[in-house]
Amino acid sequence: MHNHPIKIKGARQNNLKGLDLEIPLNQITVVTGVSGSGKSSLAFDTLYAEGQRRYVETFSPYARQFMERMDRPQVDAIEGIPPAIAIDRKDPVRTSRSTVGTMTEITDYVKLLYARLGQLYCKKCGKRVVPETPEHVWQKLKKLPAGSEVIVTFPYPYPNAGVSVEQVCMELGSMGFTRIYHNGRILSLEEWQPRKERTIHVVADRLRMGRPDHLRIVDSVEQGFRFGGGKIDVWVGDKKRLSFSRGLECARCNITYHTPLPNLFSFNSPIGACETCRGFGRNIDIDQDLIIPDTSLSLEQGAIKPWGDGQKLRMEFGDLMDFCRKEKISTDIPFRQLTKTQKKKIIDGTSSYYGIRGFFQWLETKTYKMHVRVFLSRYRSYTICHDCNGTRFKEEPLLYRLGKYTIGQVYAMNVQETGDFFRALKVPPKDEASRLVLEEVNNRLRYLKDVGLGYLTLDRQSRTLSGGEVQRVALASALGSSLVSTLYVLDEPSIGLHPRDSH
Question: Are 411 and 419 a contacting pair, CB within 8 Å?
Fold first, then answer.
């Protein structure tokens, strides 16, 4: 099939002087020349601008108002140009929320995988949490020895506000339940004497294990789930108790978990983002090394830099001296020689003294003043969030695992390691949706590796990348979208590459 070239006639954009040329399609065309010769004017300001402008004009007026629009280039005519994508190393990434994973949209697919295939483990006992069905309960009970006594109960809350014992007995009796299980004994409702317990174990069934018990147990368990709010207990003998929950709940620890929605695994969503750092992974806090830069100085010599020494006559310095006299803390020895307890009192304060931290917390209330903001900036720095340890997620998303890794651990791997992990990940045979999502993840990881970025981690902030790395990440993202008949315009794509990768 013959491919018509892109024809440019009379290009006069910027320093181009009536340029006429043809550029073949389905080939790599390199534009070279000395600085100021018009390379970017031809590639970006003429070719890309016209391709993007024509594509945007195919949308409705309502949609166009939300899209970036470029001016029509100064050219007589351009023929045969396809929709264009610009990958420019000069495009800055300004937000701290942008990472390698979000730029390539890998995180959008990984969160779907964790929502569909992630396995939840209880934060208290560490055991796997799965919704249990009557058939699941039967699979556990059928392993009991024949003749074992089994009592199926469901929890019934008591006491309820304004509800008497007679009303409880009447309500249970109307549902067909006349017995409760208490301290290893089965009592009738007439024998029951309420004490300090907050939950009554109502007997749904009592039987001895034998061969034809499958239907009866499944029916009793289903009935217990219905009346017990999705919870039942199975008592085997006098001591053994098995707890089951039909919801996403650890029946052993009585801890309920949320349904794993995709946004639970996104640090850009309030559902999944750490509440302390709000999904940034870092917090701004006072930097002790900036406040006390020289620990060989004593407090009298001005070891605490923002408060100075006695010559500056700062009120905070006077308060510090008064506090040290009351607490019998030496002020004439190097700060490093103070005990840990003494340092903690000076830094964190006490009930009667504000300390360094209290002083800076008071300053935080005055940040509407310019000089206060400038002062604070001298003594603050970014620190890893102590709640999420830099993963950016709440506690609950980190309880889910694919294989043996949480989503935070996957994002902390480099591209090479992450690719090995997802290639080895097994998807259930009939889960076609998960298979397609996994293919997207593997494709984008492969493109990142192919452009020489196998050493980057998915949680690496985009603003910390070099210009060449940003451009290659953007290229991998564009290639991963599997667009066809598209014009890619790259600005010096070999910048930042090792010579062995230039090809």
Answer: no
What is the C-alpha to C-alpha distance for residues 119 and 470, in angstroms, rounded to an integer? 34
Helices (H), 192-311: 214-227, 288-291
Determine contact, residues 86/475, Cβ cutoff 8 Å: no
Residue 494: what are its φ and ψ, rounded to 5°?
-85, 0
> What mean pLDDT do residues 281-310 have?
89
Q: Please state which of the ranges 68-72, 168-172, 196-200 shows the lowest mean pLDDT.
A: 196-200
Q: Please check the confidence at residue 414 and state whether its pLDDT lies above 80.
A: yes
Show Cβ contacts of residue 388 under 8 Å, excluding neighbours closer than 6 positions.
274, 276, 277, 281, 394, 398, 408
Per-residue pLDDT, averaged over 279-292, amounts to: 89
b/e burial code for range 330-348 (CB count within 10 A of at least 16 → b): ebeeebeebeeebbebbbe
Average pLDDT over residues 430-447: 91
Task: Give the list of residues 6+ apart from residue 297 with CB closer than 8 angstroms, or none.
Answer: 303, 334, 335
Whether this prediction's pTM lies above 0.85 is answered by: no
Return the exposure string of 433-443: e unless at least 16 CB atoms fall within 10 Å of the residue's CB, then b.
ebeebbebbbb
**Tokens 């006072």, located at residue:** 286
Mapping DSSP to helix (H, G, I), strand (E, B) and coil, where does residue 232 land?
A: strand
CB-CB neighbours of 474 under 10 Å: 22
- Considering only residues 162 and 254, tell me which one the structure prediction assigns the higher pLDDT: 254
